Amino acid sequence: APNINGANVKAHLTQLQSIASANGGNRAHGRPGYLASVNWVKSKLDAAGFTTRVQSFTYGGATGYNLIADYPGGDANNVVMLGGHLDSVTSGPGINDNGTGSASILEVALQMKATNFKPTKHVRFGWWGAEELGLRGSRAYVNSLSSTEKSRIKAYLNFDMTGSPNPGYFVYDGTEHKPVIPGSVDLQKRLEAGFASFGVPTELTLVNGRSDHAAFTAAGIATGGTFTGAEKIKTTAQAQKWGGTAGQAFDRCYHRSCDTMSNINDTALDRNADVIAWTLWATAA
Ligand code: PHE
Ligand code: ZN
Ligand code: ZN
Ligand code: ZN
């Protein structure tokens, strides 16, 4: 897998920050900054040869949008999906939550093309709308699939907050869904192996209904993901392991107006993007 250049991911974040600044300071569902974000990501993927589609849905009296992008080729009956939410809360630009996951999977998608990756499996990306209002976009997407289309998706990897300023390195616990979906444990182990290959210690976290993978697990699809922490406080043991500041939140600007370009840890952002690429190459090759 290619080592992802963190500066490229950061440049995408700068674009999302500019979009928010030009649209009232946020990229929230039903606000102009959201659709502008979708159109900007779409333009990058179209230029790289992806097949893109914008799926609309209605929530709370406003139109929401999911962006779906298919990488050409691979076995259409064996689909690996990566996704993250592209909307922010209304109070700020949402650069860590979730510009980071959105920008990281965008850069990984662009590197598939740049390195001429020819995976055996078919690879699809999703940027979800209205996550902040209750996983609305990802649920609309999964609900729109026939049972045959659902059964073709063998794995869904979710990235929501991957550059927290006081970062932890969390992998979604593959046993959180009951009954356990065996493939989720495999994805957990693969993500852990990815971090281990870069010498980064990890912990498991139970995300449950707090992000978009939940729409996929509810359909019996194997899921996994990474996370650098939100409002919870970093412990002394965690600060010894990962650095940063014990007794402080992983992200003190979570859901606030200060979730800007200054709210990013560059090392966490780059390491997570590297692990995303490592895991995609290992899963889809
Ligand atoms: N989904 C949460 C949000 O967008 C953030 C989160 C991600 C929380 C992963 C826990 C685990 O606000
Ligand atoms: Zn890197
Ligand atoms: Zn959020
Ligand atoms: Zn989020």
From TrEMBL:
| The entry's keywords | Hydrolase, Metal-binding, Protease, Signal, Zinc
Peptidase M28 domain span? 66-277
As one GO molecular function, the record gives: metalloexopeptidase activity
Q: Which InterPro entries match?
A: M28_fam, M28_SGAP-like, Peptidase_M28
| GO biological process terms held by the UniProt record | proteolysis
Keyword Transcription regulation found: no
Family, as annotated: Belongs to the peptidase M28 family. M28A subfamily.
Q: What name is this protein filed under?
A: M20/M25/M40 family metallo-hydrolase
